[in-house]
Design a protein that fits this description.
It is a single chain. With about 250 residues, the chain is of the alpha+beta class. The protein has 2 domains: about 200 residues, BirA Bifunctional Protein, domain 2 (2-Layer Sandwich); about 45 residues, SH3 type barrels (Roll), CATH 2.30.30. Helices cover about 25% and strands about 30% of the residues. It has 4 helices and 14 strands. α2 packs across α3. The longest helix has 19 residues.
Length: about 250
């Protein structure tokens, strides 16, 4: 266990190989960890994304999960994926020396020139003492990327940015800390929505949203008050979408 420079209240458990950093972080929560814990893996052998999709996790990329207890209550928990995505996009700018390099696709994908460079998975559970444990898992393509069926993917090295795991993790840990503090401050939710939408891609354009049971399409009109996707349907109805995979136009 070691401390993060400049963030002494955070702790990091770094392992050369893990099954899943999210699983280890959740196990720590169930074992009584007070939160503020990062699990950092050099390689994941059981990495996964949304809906239990496998995620390629070979050495060289960033694989990290952060455990936090009771980060918010009620509907505000729905905003955490936006917090995570915004924090990672800001960390990418810090590590690469860029400005708004990565655009955001709802709810938490980072795209560079339309190609996905990251994976973010949030999981939560209730603990016996009544607390709610939330694990925020991050995967960032630093030196290689997977071949995905539905999306183009890229990595920072291939885009011309040489970043090692240590630099990437330090940037992410600091960025997430700042974003969580801001989010929990006065008007934090409004600031989050504004900042997320400033980096969003596809606003005002036609999108498709795919669900397990089918799909719908319409015009992406931003976020509602709790972070759900606002979709203007063909009949003019405005609806909010809580979960689904977003595709732009006729492609990914």
């Amino acid at each position: 266990m070691r401390e993060v420079a400049g963030l002494p209240h955070l702790r990091v458990r770094a392992l050369a190989e893990v099954g899943s950093t999210n699983v280890l972080a959740m196990e720590a929560a169930r074992a009584g960890d007070p939160g503020g814990l990062w699990i950092l893996g050099g390689r994941q052998v059981e990495g996964r994304g949304r809906r239990a999709r496998p995620w390629v996790s070979e050495p060289g990329n960033l694989y990290a999960s952060y455990l936090v207890l009771d980060p918010a209550s009620g509907d505000r928990l729905a905003q955490l994926p936006l917090v995570a995505a915004l924090a990672l996009s800001e960390a990418v700018d810090e590590m690469c020396g860029t400005y708004a390099l990565a655009k955001l696709k709802w709810p938490n994908d980072l795209l560079v020139d339309g190609a996905k460079i990251s994976g973010i998975l949030l999981e939560a559970t209730s603990l016996p003492n009544g607390s709610r444990a939330v694990v925020m898992g991050f995967g960032l393509n630093l030196v290689h990327h997977p071949d995905l069926a539905d999306y183009r993917a890229a990595d920072l090295a291939g885009l011309g940015y040489q970043v090692d795991v240590g630099q990437a993790f330090a940037a992410l840990a600091g960025s997430l800390e700042r974003r969580l503090v801001s989010w929990n401050g006065e008007a934090g939710g409004d600031r989050l929505m504004a900042d997320w939408q400033a980096r969003a891609t596809g606003l005002g354009k036609a999108i498709r949203v795919r669900f397990d049971s089918g799909e719908t399409h319409g015009i992406f009109e931003g976020l509602d008050e709790i972070g759900r996707l606002r979709l203007r349907l063909e009949d003019g109805t405005l609806t909010s979408v809580s979960a689904g995979d977003v595709f732009f136009g006729n492609g990914s």
